[in-house]
Design goal:
Largest sheet: 2 strands, antiparallel
Distance between the termini: 45 Å
Number of domains: 2
Order of helices and strands: HHHHHEEHHHHHHHH
Strand order of the largest sheet: 1-2
Helix content: over 70%
CATH topology of the largest domain: MetI-like fold
CATH architecture of the largest domain: Orthogonal Bundle
CATH superfamily of the largest domain: MetI-like
Number of strands: 2
CATH class of the largest domain: Mainly Alpha
Number of helices: 13
């Protein structure tokens, strides 16, 4: 009798929670892989970051904050952090402005809208390595003796000699040139985000603005821009995450550059770990980048979930 009762209870429990159990069972392999290859490796990296592991032979002896103190006194790391800040500022602002302007252009009901939309978003399909190779050639300055190359050749041909530059080889402009290449690749993605947000604005608002005599300029300034503010925040978080961990574009386009003019922490991390065998320093850089990215992404995720809960409630 007890066995029948227990079997009956298990049967009812199974029928009631069968969908949840099957969903959890199907997710277990992915959750296990995420735990091992993400969180477990983050923990292992943290252990190395606080260790004395310097060289091919592992040494996990606790070293306190010494690795981080030495890192922040390292001139190359300071230059890399400054370059990363300049890159992030130019890259994020450039993508936001250009992406929004492209979205406004497409929102005017162009005849070839589908063609231009695909054209603007096409660079996103190219890997950052390919982008780096292409823009490295475009930004190669050349000289009057050997012949101008890329943009300098174009400016020389049309007579705009004052626009010639050393581009990514320039001490003052190097990291900006890399940011321009990254902006070219990602502005189409931001354009798609803004275009979707603009198209989701109710038509009644635009009709009301037209009836009230608002010009297109005032409509976009006072109605569209405030309503796409959430999209702007999302774009800033996504682009900021890319800017903080930029590596492949730097590696393919310039490397650290002469005098570290285009160096960034992610590239320094790779060199000091896999070329210099300073695993504790490389892990420390990786941990700093993780903290910076988490400080950008986690508040955004928390705010998104709190807003959705409030709307759901």
């Amino acid at each position: 009798m007890k066995e029948k009762t227990a079997r009956y209870a298990l049967g009812r429990l199974w029928s009631r929670h069968r969908d949840r159990f099957c969903a959890l069972l199907s997710l277990l392999p992915s959750l296990a892989l995420i735990f091992v290859f993400v969180y477990l490796l983050i923990g292992w990296n943290t252990v190395i970051a606080f260790s004395k592991w310097h060289g091919l032979k592992s040494d996990l002896s606790f070293n306190g904050l010494k690795n981080f103190i030495e890192l922040f006194h390292d001139e190359r790391f300071q230059i890399g952090m400054r370059n990363m800040g300049v890159f992030a500022l130019v890259f994020i602002s450039g993508c936001i402005v250009l992406g929004f302007l492209l979205a406004l252009l497409l929102d005017q009901g162009l005849k070839w809208e589908s063609f231009f939309r695909n054209l603007y978003i096409y660079p996103l399909a190219i890997s950052l390595v390919v982008t780096g190779v292409i823009w490295r050639w475009l930004f190669t300055p050349g000289s009057e003796l050997t012949g101008w190359i890329g943009f300098n050749q174009l400016f020389d041909f049309v007579g705009l000699h004052f626009l010639k530059s050393g581009w990514h080889t320039s001490q003052s402009f190097g990291i900006v040139a890399v940011a321009i290449a990254a902006t070219w690749q990602m502005s189409g993605y931001v354009m798609a985000m803004y275009l979707a947000a603009i198209r989701s604005i109710p038509v009644e608002l635009k009709e009301a603005a037209v009836i009230d005599g608002a010009s297109p300029y005032r409509y976009y300034l006072h109605i569209v821009i405030p309503l796409v503010r959430t999209t702007t925040v999302s774009a800033v978080v996504i682009l900021g995450h890319i800017a903080l961990r930029v590596f492949d574009l730097i590696a393919a386009m310039t490397g650290s550059g002469k005098g570290f003019i285009t160096d960034v922490p992610a590239f320094y991390m790779w060199q000091t770990t896999f070329q210099g065998n300073r695993f504790n320093r490389g892990a420390a850089i990786a941990l700093i980048l993780l903290v910076l990215i988490s400080g950008l992404v986690i508040p955004y995720i928390a705010r998104t979930y709190s807003t959705s809960d409030e709307q759901g409630g």
